[in-house]
Amino acid sequence: GQQLNQSPQSMFIQEGEDVSMNCTSSSIFNTWLWYKQEPGEGPVLLIALYKAGELTSNGRLTAQFGITRKDSFLNISASIPSDVGIYFCAGLSGSARQLTFGSGTQLTVLP
Amino acid sequence: DSGVTQTPKHLITATGQRVTLRCSPRSGDLSVYWYQQSLDQGLQFLIQYYNGEERAKGNILERFSAQQFPDLHSELNLSSLELGDSALYFCASSSRQGLSYEQYFGPGTRLTVT
């Protein structure tokens, strides 16, 4: 089946720093979604991307749909303590009917 | 609040037992998805229903089954439970019209099998 490689697996950053994480695949995806999950909660949809090259922002979060359609990036600017959580990418390819999820990036923001 | 509700929040049961997890989708959403999340497996898609009919199956065990009722709520039935079934179970919903791949997740049910 489809596989998404999400990196890094975990990050420890200082409050105020910018963060970058990405997802890559050997397959072409038509849709990329980014979710955030906090402990004991369900994933929350942050950003959805539908076109190659698309750059979309949601507050301090910016995500991009890679030109090759095989990757996506999520950037968080000026991190704050409430950014702590696990960030998941999810993608949908033309041949698949369901989302494929990455393994997540655990983000820790140090005061 | 995503608008998706799940009950119960926590469930503790013994091996061999059967449980039912319940999900109510966002108002107007016709599709319901079930996922299992365990520590070493990430989010695994189990099954999807659309307007009462099974639409897609993922890595769902034969001991597990689901259904979607006319009022669009869904239930996931887990039987002959094993220790390895302990996990978080999430329900998500999406709209058929427009951007149907934007799935909105409920708060989950934490199942512990002892």
What is the fold's blueprint, element by element?
The complex is a heterodimer of chains A (111) and B (114).
Chain A (H helix, E strand, L loop, with lengths): L4 E3 L2 E5 L4 E6 L6 E7 L6 E6 L5 E4 L2 E5 L5 E6 L8 E8 L7 E2 L3 E6 L1
Chain B lengths: L4 E3 L2 E4 L5 E6 L6 E8 L3 E9 L2 E5 L6 E5 L5 E5 L8 E8 L9 E2 L3 E5 L1
Parallel strand pairs in B: 2-11
Antiparallel strand pairs in B: 1-3, 3-8, 4-5, 4-9, 5-6, 7-8, 9-10, 9-11
Notes on the protein architecture:
- The complex is a heterodimer of chains A (111) and B (114).
- By secondary structure, chain A is mostly beta strands.
- Chain A is built from no helices and eleven strands.
- In chain A, strands 2, 4, 5, 9, 10 and 11 form a six-stranded mixed beta sheet that branches. In chain A, strands 1-3-8-7-6 form a five-stranded antiparallel beta sheet, with no helix packed on it.
- In chain A, a hairpin with a 6-residue loop joins β4 (31-37) and β5 (44-49).
- Chain B has strands at residues 5-7, 10-13, 19-24, 31-38, 42-50, 53-57, 64-68, 74-78, 87-94, 104-105, 109-113.
- Chain B is an all-beta fold and 114 residues long.
- In chain B, the strands form two sheets. In chain B, strands 2, 4, 5, 6, 9, 10 and 11 form a seven-stranded mixed beta sheet that branches. A four-stranded antiparallel beta sheet of chain B has the order 1-3-8-7, with no helix packed on it.
- Helix content of chain B is 0%, strand content 53%.
- The interface between A and B is medium-sized, with 20 and 22 residues.
